[in-house]
Amino acid sequence: MLLRLSIRDFAVVAHAELEFGSGLTVISGETGAGKSLLVDALGFLSGARADTGAVRFGAQRAELSAEFSLVDCPQTTLWLQAAELDDGETCLLRRVLHADGGSRAWINGRPVALSQLTDLAELLVELHGQHAQQALLVRPRQTALLDACLRQPELLRDTCDTAQRWKVLHEERHRLLARGDVAERQRWLQFQLEELDAQPLAADALAELDTSHRRHAHAAALIAVCDDTLDAITGDAAIGSRLQHLRSGLQRESAHDARLAEVDALLDSASIQLDEAVSQLQRVRDDLDLDPDALASLERQLIRVQDLARKHRVTPDQLQAQRDVLAAELDALADADDKLRRLDADIAAAHAAWTQAALRLRDARHETGATLSSSVSALIAQLGMEGGVFAIQFDANPDSQPDPNGSERAEFLVSANPGQPPRPLRKIASGGELSRISLAIEVAAQGEDAVPTMVFDEVDAGIGGAVAAAVGSQLRKLGHGRQVLCVTHQPQVAAAGHAHYRVLKAASDGITQSSVTALDATDRIEEIARMLGGSAVSDEARAAAGRLLDAH
Questions:
Q1: Rounded to a whole number, what is the largest CA-CA distance in the chain?
Q2: Helical residues (DSSP H) of 383-464, grouped into ranges
Q3: Taking the CA atoms of the chain, what radius of gyration do you get in angstroms?
Q4: Domain that includes residue 320, residue range
Q5: Burial 218-244 (b: 16+ CB within 10 A, else e)
């Protein structure tokens, strides 16, 4: 619901701050005062194309903002959350129009694209009377309104769910077939796995291969260092023999200085370490051999591993993981034919389920459509189009695939005059007729339209008397369950409002400006009396105005 509307330097309005409540709010004023500027302001806040003429003469820019309550607006709340623009239980739309033609938009203080502003505004406010902004002219919106009148959300939900089920299965089948010839893919995978399994791919195996290669590649140097070290330890001038000679002298003299015994113990430990070193060196030397054939074999294995890594576009240490991926795919393809047959059966079952759900939805639409058509036809007759006919035409979807919205689309048809065949609502030429027909549709739908705020302009154009009273009565009726704003020049319509604003235009310092004022009970009588009798308000006009107000 619209709570506040702020206008600054827009057209002939220098500044206006308006607050709105529930029910029907009427906006009146003399011809040319700028009553429709409030509708235009909401239109720009709903994403209408910016016009440099919308900026007040002499100003650099126009600023418009509107605050909406989101209570009982779950769709709007979900949209804001999805766009990460939510900010509590209210929503603020703001737009700036520059005199050079540019514009910028904000939602809850955050800059947004104009398309986002348009998408959000469609969930908040619905404008009736201007073809470019008439939501009910769009066929999907017509179908959505009809579905809301069904009051059986499970019908559309079942149709949507079964269509989605069919789509998911169909996409899975497409992915399976996109792999190409399954048998050929299996043969290819099997070859790749055999090729990989022929090589050591585990981390410890690759490490051992690298170690063995380095040992054979440097065998000559390793043998030489082992032989030299062993000769130094065990040869004629062996380190071990010299240690034994040194220890003998220390042992003789340790009786004179006990500290020499500690040195002897350390040399004894060194002698033991030398013996262990000799044993280890002998084992290493025994393992070493100059074997060109073994070296060549190891080099071939390393080259093969590197080639496989390049082929599969991984590093050597990732080959094992790549092998597991290929093996998993091969396992998945093992029952590909059976899976394809199961998918085909599931797809057929999903299509059949959607067909049944779509048939139930179609039958309910036709039944509700007949009731809605009868109600709207009766209402448009009351609203000045005697003999007019409202009908709903159903057109089958050209695509045979399951559609979440059912197997058909609704289109609203109207004949405003007797003897004329019904034509699509979008082709109605008269703005006044279009607004009254929209009013009749909304009243007949009993407020099932999800948009919380409705704005009517030109709804009383070209009518008066009893028809104007009927329009006012229906607007007020609609306002019992919705917030309704209506620009009017008919006193019968103005008297039906729960609240009333008056637009005045006056010249100040040679510049024409409009102002907007909220009217109290006394001011309303004066304004409606003016609408009844012209600029010279008489007591009779005031009395008539009071009677009109008392009627509601």
A1: 148
A2: 431-444
A3: 45
A4: 182-333
A5: ebeebeeebeeebeebbeeebeeeeee
Residue linked to tokens 């791919």: 201
Q: Which two tokens stand for residue 352?
A: 């059949």
Is residue 93 within 8 A of residue 107, CB to CB? The reply is: yes
Tell me the C-alpha distance between 100 and 111, whole Å: 20
Q: Per the structure block, which two tokens stand in for 208?
A: 């051992």
- Report the DSSP beta bridge partners of residue 499: 25
Please name the residue ranges forming H helices in 407-459.
431-444
Give the contacts of 94 (CB within 8 A, at least 6 positions apart).
Answer: 45, 63, 64, 65, 105, 106, 107, 109
Count helices and strands (H / E) in the chain: 18, 15
DSSP helix/strand/coil, 290: coil
Q: Which two tokens stand for residue 159?
A: 């149709």
Residue 230 lies in a domain: yes
Q: Residues of 72-110 as b/e, b for ≥16 C-beta within 10 angstroms?
A: ebeebbebbeeeebbeeeebbbbbbbebeeebebbbbee
Please give the Cα distance from 145 to 75 (Å, whole number): 15
Sequence-distant (6+) residues with CB within 8 A of 123 are 73, 75, 76, 79, 450, 451
**74 closest CA partner among 132, 124, 17:** 124
Residue 271 is assigned to a structural domain of this protein: yes
Domain contains 111: no
Q: Which segments in the chain show pLDDT lower than 70?
A: 33, 129-135, 179-181, 211, 213, 216-220, 227, 235-238, 240-241, 286-291, 293-295, 297, 429-431, 447-449, 507-512, 535
Among 92, 111, 95, 102, residue whose Cα is nearest residue 45? 95
Distance of alpha carbon 58 from the chain centroid: 41
pLDDT in tens, 275-331: 787 778 777 776 666 667 666 767 777 778 888 888 888 888 888 888 888 888 887
Number of domains in the chain: 1
Nearest residue to 493 via CA among 439, 425, 426, 536: 439
Q: Is the pTM of this model over 0.85?
A: no
Answer whether residue 141 is part of any domain.
no
The residues near 393 (Cβ < 8 Å, ≥ 6 apart) are 410, 411, 413, 422
d(CA 130, CA 137) in angstroms, rounded, equals: 10
d(CA 45, CA 126): 12
| pLDDT of amino acid 290 | 65
The sheet that has 2-10: what strands, in order across it?
Answer: 110-112, 103-107, 90-98, 61-69, 2-10, 13-19, 511-518, 499-508, 24-29, 483-487, 453-456, 125-128
- Strand (E) or helix (H) holding 227: helix 219-234
